[in-house]
Amino acid sequence: GIQVEQSPPDLILQEGANSTLRCNFSDSVNNLQWFHQNPWGQLINLFYIPSGTKQNGRLSATTVATERYSLLYISSSQTTDSGVYFCAVREAGNMLTFGGGTRLMVKP
Amino acid sequence: DAGVIQSPRHEVTEMGQEVTLRCKPISGHDYLFWYRQTMMRGLELLIYFNNNVPIDDSGMPEDRFSAKMPNASFSTLKIQPSEPRDSAVYFCATQATALAGFSYNEQFFGPGTRLTVL
Questions:
Q1: What is the β-pairing status of strands B10-13 and B113-117?
Q2: Contact criterion met (CB below 8 Å) for B34 and B23
Q3: How would you classify the pairing of strands B113-117 and B88-95?
Q4: pLDDT digit string (tens) for B58-106?
Q5: How far apart are CA A43 and CA B93, in angstroms?
Q6: Which among B45, B56, B112 has the least Cβ separation from residue A96?
Q7: Using a CB-CB distance cutoff of 8 angstroms, which residues of chain A are in contact with residue B55?
Q8: Interface with chain A: mutation pick from B43, B60, B91, highest number of A CBs within 10 Å
Q9: Which DSSP string corresponds to A68-100?
């Protein structure tokens, strides 16, 4: 099956800093989603982005499908950004395959 | 819309007991997925339904696990008998197809059920 790798696995930021999270996948995909799992465990949809670039406030994402990677940018990080960020892809059918996540801690 | 609703939010039970987890999908969504999250294995798909019909249950760990979707508004995941290694967070997620007029192909997750089997 498809492999999804996220980097870095862990990230510590000072509040106000910017960061880039990366998601690499091993095969062509027709769906890619970014999620934020907050400290309470809830999975929150950030982006549905099989290709191109999208922005939502301080967050933006870019997927280059031909090169099999996606990037999530967080600007001016806040403590509420802490949690785990997951990339999930779908190559066929409707099943999402999740990466291992990037655990982010933003310090005040 | 209230989003995907799961119950209970927390469940603590003893080994050997039957456990039933419940999910109410977003109205109009025709796909429903059950996932399990553990520290060791991360997020893994157990089974998914389309229009109430199970499509792929290859992720169901063993016969102790079963899932049903009797109608478009309700699904259950049952573990009988439960074992300590079943302790995990179980998520339900739903998705709409393009014809439904929603943001299709995007999966939305419920808050999860944290199961502890003693």
A1: parallel
A2: yes
A3: antiparallel
A4: 999 889 999 999 999 999 999 999 999 999 999 999 998 765 555 567 8
A5: 10
A6: B45
A7: 93-94
A8: B43
A9: TEEEEEE-S--GGG-EEEEEEEESSTT--EE--
